[in-house]
Amino acid sequence: MDRPSVKVFRNCGDALGEGPLWDAARNCLWWVDVAGRYIHRADTVGETIETFAVEHAPAALALADDGTLVVAAGLAWYRFDPATGGLDRIARTGVKSPAMRLNDGVVDERGRFWTGTLHE
């Protein structure tokens, strides 16, 4: 039986790279560097990478219907516009502890973006 081959898509030197998200409309891959506070976008072969610095530690991404992304970062959710690099808060968690932050997230079949929290 042949073993599947595995290769690195792209080594960006992320401190904590997570949350890959395929964007079929743009034909690209998104992911975050939580510790570095970056959102990355790469073409299908990883040759062209765009990096966007953000103020809070991004943990998870979701695609919005209008072409923007919803970003779970710090203790809030933000709308990220890739065209401008703008990040606007849309909701807060209500959690008051600075030792907490949002963590992994996923969109369910009804279009709801579920995210968990993490105690640093």
What would your notes on this structure say?
The chain is an all-beta fold. The chain is built from no helices and ten strands. It has strands at 17-23, 28-33, 38-42, 49-53, 58-63, 69-73, 76-81, 86-92, 100-107, 113-119. It has a four-stranded antiparallel sheet, with no helix packed on it. The mean pLDDT is 92.
Write the layout of secondary structure elements.
Layout: E1 17-23, E2 28-33, E3 38-42, E4 49-53, E5 58-63, E6 69-73, E7 76-81, E8 86-92, E9 100-107, E10 113-119
Antiparallel strand pairs: 1-2, 2-3, 3-4, 5-6, 6-7, 7-8, 9-10
List keywords for this structure.
four-stranded antiparallel sheet; mainly beta; single chain; 120 residues; globular
Mean pLDDT, to the nearest integer, reads: 92
In percent, how much strand structure appears in the residues? over 45%
Q: How many β strands by DSSP? A: 10
What distance lies between the first and last C-alpha atoms, to the nearest angstrom? 43 Å
- Provide the helix percentage: under 10%
Query: What is the 3D shape?
Result: globular
pLDDT < 50 stretches = none
Structural class computed from helices and strand pairing: mainly beta
Order the strands across the largest sheet as they lie in space: 1-2-3-4
Q: Radius of gyration from the CA trace? A: 15 Å
Largest sheet: 4 strands, antiparallel
What is the string of helix and strand elements? EEEEEEEEEE
Helix run count: 0
